[in-house]
Write a structure and sequence with these properties.
This protein is of the alpha+beta class. It is 26% helix and 34% strand. It is built from one helix and ten strands. It has one helix at 2-41; strands spanning 42-49, 56-58, 65-72, 79-88, 98-99, 103-104, 111-112, 123-132, 138-139, 143-147. Strands 2, 4, 5, 6, 8, 9 and 10 form a seven-stranded mixed sheet that branches. A hairpin with a 5-residue loop joins strand 8 and strand 9 (138-139). The chain is rod-shaped.
Length: 153
């Protein structure tokens, strides 16, 4: 009789352990699913330089100003931080020639690129990384701009 009771107790312990494991897997799955859904419901779009989309003839004499907006179908979603990255060429890949660093701010309009030195008659690309209040860091698409021409030289 004692053996039967011990065997039933072990069996119950195994069943309880499997239940706990199943609950943990379910919780992790739901969490990842929510994160994935939120990420796909929030986007960074409308990248602009000096209020223009992919402009030509951007002045090298004054600081470039970046703008974007984060659009979300998630109620209460907002921007916590941003990081602007500028690249030579139009691919938006490789090592950036300038980065704002991670800036803790909800601002996304008319951000001056202090310290960014641009050459004339050159194509640049840029993107912005945004950390929303809920979910993973978002990376915008790549936008481009071309700097002004020196007609005198």
């Amino acid at each position: 009789m004692k053996r039967g009771r011990k065997a039933r107790t072990r069996k119950r312990c195994r069943i309880d352990a499997l239940k706990v494991l199943a609950i943990m897997v379910l919780i992790i799955g739901v969490t990842v699913g929510i994160e994935y859904a939120i990420e796909n419901l929030t986007i960074v779009q409308n990248l602009k330089i000096n209020y223009e989309t992919d402009p030509l003839g951007v002045s090298t004499a004054s600081p470039v100003r970046f703008s974007w907006n984060m659009s979300s179908k998630v109620k209460g979603q907002s921007q916590k931080t941003y990081e602007i990255r500028v690249y030579e060429g139009e691919s938006g890949q490789g090592t950036p020639i300038w980065t704002s660093g991670v800036v803790k701010s909800d601002e996304s309009m008319n951000i001056a690129a202090e310290g960014l030195s641009l050459e004339r008659e050159k194509r640049y690309s840029w993107k912005v990384l945004v950390q929303p209040s809920w979910g993973w860091k978002l990376v915008s698409g790549v936008a481009t701009f071309v700097t002004d021409t020196d007609f005198e030289g």
